[in-house]
Each structure stands twice: as C-alpha cells, then as structure tokens.
Amino acid sequence: MRGGRGGRAGAGLLAGGTVLTALTATLIGPGAPGAAAATAQNCQSPAKTVIATLPWAQTLLAPQRAWQFTTGANVTVAVIDSGVDAGVPQLKGHVLPGLSLDTADGPATADCLGHGTMVAGIIAAQPVSGIGFAGVAPGAVILPIRVYSDTGTTSSEDMAKAIVAATGAGAKVINISAVAQASSPDLATAVQYAQAHDVLIVASAGNDNQQADEVTYPAAYPGVIAVGSITAAGTVAQTSETGGFIDLVAPGDTILSLGIGGPGHVYDSGTSFAAPFVAATAALVRSYYPTLTAPQVKARLETTADHPAKTLPDPQYGWGVIDPYRAVTAILTPAAAPVPGAIPLPQLNVHSPASARHLSLGFAGAAGALVVLVLTCSRLLARGRERGWR
C-alpha cells in the first residue's frame, strides 16, 4: 500500500504470487514546488505562510455555488490517514477526537506528516475573510483515523481496522488517500462491511502511471469511487493511474491546502489530494439528500460530472470531472444513472428544487396578475358603454 503523493513512494509486498495481508505503505514522496519541508523525522515544519489568493482548484469547481443549498452539515467524513492537526485555525471545531491505531506516535488529532491535514483541509476548511482557500464542504465534520506512524508506514490490516472503526463511529463518507498494489482479504472484507452499513468510500487511484498502469486497492473494489488527478489545464496528470477502474477525476496537481502547526498553507500534488474533492462533494450530496443510499450518491456524482466527449466511462477520466454544484442541484429522473457506453447521457435540469419552487411561484403570481387585469378591463368596458364610448 502506498500514499497518493507525487512520485513513487514504496511498493506493496508480493511473495510467489501470494498477496501478503500486511502490505507496507508509505506517504512520503516528492511534493509539488512549495510543499512544506520535512524534518529529519519526516515531520513537516509548521506552516506559517498564509496564501490569500483563490487556488485554481476552487476556481474550477466553484463549490461555494452549492453552499446556498448545503455546506455538508450533519455529515461525518472519516479521513483515514496520518492524523489531522485539529489546532489549525481553519479546521478548529470541525475535527472530532478520532482514533489512532498507532498510539505510540500520538493521537489522531496530531499529524507529523501533514498529509492527513491537507486532505482534511480540502474537505472542510472554514471560509475566512481575506483568504481564498476553503474546503468544499465546510459544514462537514472530520473524523480522523490515524493509521500511519511518523515514519509514514502502515499495513492493509490496519487500513481495514480503520475502515471498520470509521463505520462504527458513524462516518457516512470515508476518504482513503493511499493505495495497495494488490487486494487483501482484510481490506476487501472491511470495504464490504462499510458498504453493508451504507458508507461511501472514496479512494485515490495512485501515482505510478509513468512506471506501470496498475490497478490499485481499495480504489478498484466494486462500489468504491476511484479518483484520478487532473491539472489546471484539464488534462489527466502524467503520474495519475488510469484504467477501467477509474470512476472520476478531480484537481490534483499543485494543490493548495492547510499545513500543520499554524495558520499557513502548503502545496502538494497527487491523487491523494484529488480524492478529498470527491469525498467532500459526496458529503454535500449526503447532507442535501439524506435518504439517498451510498450507491445512489455514487451514481449521482458520476451522472452530474463534467463528462469528456468520449465513450464513458473513459480509461483516463472515468465519468469526468467532479462538479459540486451540479451534484447538488441537478434534478435527475430515477433512471438517470450511469450505464457504461450509454451515449447520449440523460439530460440534466440544473435548476435546483429551490429554484423550481421559485419558478412555480412566479407563474402563479403572473396568473393572478392576469386575472386582475381581465377583471379591471371588463369594468372599464362596461362603464364605457354606459357613457357611449366607442
């Protein structure tokens, strides 16, 4: 199992064709220019530089357009990662105590590596006046499940335990920004357990496309949303894994989010940071449509994505680029769910239910005004005839 950052960061262990349950993982890898520097102990330095400009990912997705309908309130998103720094100003009050499976290195609300804090920031960072960056679902609550030690390693067994723990703690969406080269019984069983409890799992696809076009896990398990990475130009990132298991893509190149130990921001790249854009959008949908099941939420995200002009799902883009506004506001027919190769796709009405109500009220008001006009004209005509008007 490997982390989703840019560059190769380790390898899953195989022995004679038999998949070992304990697949080692690492989250340490070369970040994008401007990434916070790591210390000799792999820990990031405190982030003190605040970047006020609006990041390209938030410009592209414009999640604030959906906030008039929902900010993701009442939805818990589990971040299975290196922990989340709960003291970061833009996350204060939105991080639960969580659970650490590696207690020797600290609680789940501490994050030496900074990886989990970046992921959590993309999901639920609070809007602040004068700062362009904010999470896609600022009303959501983060449940940190720490599975990585300060050396950046974990196992598929611990990842499986984390999925079960997140499910038991009430998470409705789970973000996993790490990959394994092969399936394992523990991981597969844990994914099935979460799905049986109506939990939607979103996972990064991985960053080894330049070395080999691999199928990765848990992204490739049925029902899991596998997320690839795109650049600011809209092209699939060179390192992003591709293949038939890709469901959606999201910004993942030179992504700005929260650093640890202060109010500052950092940059990094990889499918690790594409996945939380999708997880946060799922939180928006689960908040606004609380009766939808996890498979229905997945279908909605795919149907409302910005589809490429290709046969779908496409090996590089899947069903397309995640679209938070359309995911919340599109009015879909019951049959409007993705079907591989189905072209054209269902027509979407992007008027929200609220807008539809306003439209109905507008028609009702116009009809009432017309009735008043007709009655007024009738009275005027009657008086005109009495006075001999022509």
From TrEMBL:
GO biological process, one term: proteolysis
Gene Ontology MF, one: peptidase activity
Subcellular location: Cell membrane
Domain Peptidase S8/S53: 72-320
Keyword Transmembrane listed: yes
Keyword Protein biosynthesis listed: no
Domain of life per record: Bacteria
Membrane-spanning intervals of the chain: 359-382
Positions annotated as active site in the UniProt record: 81, 115, 272
Pfam families the UniProt entry points to: Peptidase_S8
Keywords: Cell membrane, Hydrolase, Membrane, Protease, Serine protease, Transmembrane, Transmembrane helix
Membrane-related topology note: Single-pass membrane protein
Similarity comment text for this entry: Belongs to the peptidase S8 family.
Cross-referenced PANTHER family: CEREVISIN-RELATED, PEPTIDASE S8
The protein, known as: Type VII secretion-associated serine protease mycosin
Gene that encodes it: mycP
